[in-house]
Amino acid sequence: MSIRLGDIAPDFEQDSSAGRIRFHEWLGDSWGILFSHPADFTPVCTTELGFTAKLKGEFAQRGVKAIALSVDPVESHLKWIEDINETQDTQVNFPILADADRKVSDLYDLIHPNANDTLTVRSLFIIDPAKKVRLIITYPASTGRNFHEILRVIDSLQLTDHHKVATPANWQDGDEVVIVPSLKDEAELQQRFPKGYRAVKPYLRLTPQPNR
Fold first, then answer.
1. Of 2, 10, 11, 156, which sees the most CB atoms within 10 A?
2. Contact status, residue 202 vs residue 196, Cβ threshold 8 Å
3. From the candidates 9, 45, 84, 98, which is the catalytic residue?
């Protein structure tokens, strides 16, 4: 099964380090980040899970829940969490799915057919409160994820969901944004963007970022 942007994130029920998870029920009205790991006790993933735990306040501010996945069992996860807490100076505060039967991995197409048939690829999904998949990123095993970029994308998605704007290259929260080309009515432009805008080209109009 191949998942594309805009698809409803597949629902599932699976064991985790925090007990049995019914995914859509667990998400509720929150945004979610689901990210996979090839196995427990892997060095790069140890740093990623520790950094995710340290971002608890940033995720909470944005209404985001994090959940990880590995095909190892709960008992292994719990031992790994002890290592993460010790080596990363944090406390893991989110569930790690124990996908020993590969149910979730198969739903989310996380087993590469040309690689090991049990190790999941390192994919990350951002899922909105309507349960739609809004971002998919797959990383190589040697490269740790950039969680600052994940937060930046969430900020962009939440902003552009509520305003008729898009975010330009290298945008950071607070920077100018792009007015969508379909918005042409001058009265509506003044109403939506009281600080005005500057037209670099008719199709490229920049305006101060609206309040999120």
1. 156
2. no
3. 45
